Amino acid sequence: MILVLTLAAGLWGLGWALKLPRSARAVMVGLLLVAVVAVHIVLPDGHPLRDMTGSEPALWIFIICIGMIVWGYSYLLGRVKTRASGAPAFDYEPSATAGPFSTTELDRYARHIVLREIGGAGQKDLKDAKVLVIGAGGLGAPALQYLAAAGVGTLGVIDDDVVDNSNLQRQVIHTDARIGMPKVHSAAEAIAALNPFVTVKPYKRRLTAEIAAELIAEYDLVLDGSDNFDTRYLVNEVSVAAGVPLIAAALTQWEGQMSLYDPKDGTPCYRCVFPERPAAHLVPSCAEGGVLGPLPGVVGAMMAVEAVKTITGAGEGLRGRLLIYDALYAETRAIKVNRDPTCPVCAN
Question: Beta 331-336 vs 221-224: how paired, if at all?
């Protein structure tokens, strides 16, 4: 018995050294115990292997049964705690994105790679990119989905809200089964299911001035899908200070607008274009004025398109232009926007 216990401890230690998950280590030890039971059943009494591993198979069978009961109880208890806390129903370990493409990744991104404007180099830029999405709601949901599908290597998402039944009309990254779960965890679960080659960093908290600078500095690009001017002004100010390009969008009822703000590259910042917040009755919230369900999907997907172009250098982006989409009348127009030489945020 001492030999078996020593082998079991050795396998567990080897799994730990190789950074294998606990479940994989448990399987290794379980297979060892099954092999010991098989030895006792197959080999005759007095065989050296039976003597070395204990005299009776019943003892090992009893140990295996106890182990399975303990594992089952721990698993069910963990599921109950997960459901009660609203955390994702899986042990999420970010996947490594560094290094060359695997065969699966090459096949997955083949339609990007054959695009002349992206190619293999552009897809590698996407794999190496770090993008922070502010908000996992109407705009954040489609942006996250398409950025994950496109192969952006690291996606950060910050939101302090939980999934509500009323969100599901437009926030399609979430599901009915995840009502009550933090939106960032719901989004992380959906992204992991969509593309395991993407690392997701969920931050369940409100973006505040105390954390914004440190957080945004970790990323190459920021997408702002927040629904209030306080957050938009904060994200703009910190992005300008950090020299990080910002793609910001907003929605109201049937209309959406977006632009790319990158003052270090000569564009205006968000404050240049929107120096003062409009009166509340002019921009009602979704709860107050309503919003067309597919509209966030259209504008959020446009944000993802601009993000891919910004990262890969493809085409002409929205630098210095404000794109306005009117879904009710099926009109899209772009207007030129200029820097404000007196802007308190980006003026030299």
Answer: unpaired
